Amino acid sequence: MASVANDGTVKYGIVGVGMMGREHLVNLYHLRSQNVGVVAIADPHVPSQQLAVELARSFDWPLEVFSGHQELLDSGLCDVVVVSSPNMTHYRILMDIINHPKPHHVLVEKPLCTTVADCKKVVDAARRRTDMLVQVGLEYRYMPPVAKLIEIVKDGAVGQVKMVAIREHRFPFLVKVDNWNRFNANTGGTLVEKCCHFFDLMKLFAGANPVRVMASGAIDVNHKDEVYDGKVPDIIDNAYVIVEFDNGSRGMLDLCMFAEGSKNEQEISVVGDIGKGEAFVPESIVRFGTRAAGRDGVQTLKAEDRRVKYDGLHHGSSYLEHLTFLSAVRAKGEKAPAVDLQDGLVSVAIGVAAQLSIEKGQFVTIQEVMDEYHG
C-alpha cells in the first residue's frame, strides 16, 4: 500500500484545477482537522493554476505547481492524487499514475473515461497494482437525501425493487476551460458526462447488472448559437433513457438541461413490491410509504448529515466522498473504495449504450457495448 507521511499527514495532489479541481481543494481544506493537506497541483492552463494558488494561499497551504501530471507524480510529494481534469484526459493520466513506480491512491472524477474501451484498459491495469486504491467520483450516492433513500431501500422498507425513476431538470452545462465540454468527442456525450451519476444510482438501487438500454434524445434548445473553432456543439440537452436489469427491474432517466424553472434539480423515485421511497435535491427531503398504509401513511423526513462541514457545489456530497475515501486510504488495504473501477466502468457503459441507442433508434445491449468496444 502507498504509505503516508511519518507524521500521519495524508498529502494530496490535484491534477486539473479548473472549477471542479478547486472545489476539491476547498473540500480538502475543510477536512484539515483529519490531518490532510494539498501540497501540489498540476494544470497546463495558467489562469487555473493562478486561481488555485490564490485559493491555497488563503488557506495558508503552500503549493508546488506543475504544468503536467507526470512532473507531479515524479516529484514524489503526494500520497493521493485527485484527477479532476477534462474527461478526455482521464485515460492517459490514470494509466500514467497506475504505471508510475511510486504508488499513489487515486480519486478520479466521473466519468472514469469517455469510452468503454479506455475504462476496461484502466480496470485491467489497476488490477496489477494491489498497492493502490482507486475510487471513482460518483458522489451523488453521498448527497444526504440520496444516502437516506439508499438506506431505506437497503433496509427492505420498499421490498423488492421493481422501478427506479430519476428526473434531472436543471440548467445548461456551465462554461469550462476552452469550452471542452461542448463536444461529445471530449466528454463522451451528455449521457456519459452527466448521467453516469444516475446510472450508477439505478444499478445501486436495483441491486443488479444492466442488460439493455433504450433512449431517445436530442439537441433542442441549448448551445445552438455557439461556435468554437468553426464547430457547433453536438451535446444533447434532453433525453429519456430506459435501462433494464438482469433481475427484471427497470430504471428510467428523464433529463432536461433547459429547466431552470424547477424547484428541485433531482427527483428520485424507487418503487418496490411493498412500498415506495423518494428523494428530492436540493430540498433535501425524503418520503417513503407502503402500499398497505397508503397515502395517509407516507412519512416525510428532512435529510441531513451532521458530518458535513462544507456543502459546496454538490450539497455536501464531495465532502462526504473525501471523508469516505480518506478512511479507506488510512485503512491501508483493509477497506475497499466505496465506489470502485467496476462501478465507474458500468456507469459509462450504460451512458455509451444510451448514446448509441439514440443514434440507432433501437435497444442496445450492454454486452454489445462491452464487446464492440473491446480494447
Fold blueprint:
Elements: E1 10-15, H1 19-29, E2 36-42, H2 46-58, E3 64-66, H3 69-75, E4 80-83, H4 90-98, E5 105-109, H5 116-127, E6 134-137, H6 144-154, E7 161-169, H7 184-187, H8 190-193, H9 196-206, E8 210-218, E9 238-245, E10 250-256, E11 266-272, E12 275-281, E13 285-290, E14 299-302, H10 317-330, H11 341-360, E15 364-365, H12 366-372
Parallel strand pairs: 1-2, 1-4, 2-3, 4-5, 5-6, 7-10
Antiparallel strand pairs: 7-11, 8-9, 8-15, 9-10, 11-12, 12-13, 13-14
Helix pairs in contact: 1-2, 4-5, 5-11, 9-11, 11-12
Percentage of residues in DSSP E strands? 15-25%
Number of helices: 12
Strand order of the largest sheet: 14-13-12-11-7-10-9-8-15
The chain-level mean pLDDT equals 95
Q: What is the structural class?
A: alpha/beta
Instruction: Give me the CATH superfamily of the largest domain.
Output: Dihydrodipicolinate Reductase, domain 2
Number of strands: 15
Overall geometric form: globular
CATH architecture classification of the largest domain = 2-Layer Sandwich
Determine the N-to-C terminus distance: 28 Å
- Main beta sheet, described? 9 strands, mixed
Q: List the secondary-structure elements in sequence, H or E.
A: EHEHEHEHEHEHEHHHEEEEEEEHHEH
Provide the number of structural domains. Answer: 2
Could you list the spans in which at least 5 consecutive residues all have pLDDT below 50? none
The whole-angstrom Rg is 20 Å
CATH topology of the largest domain: Dihydrodipicolinate Reductase, domain 2
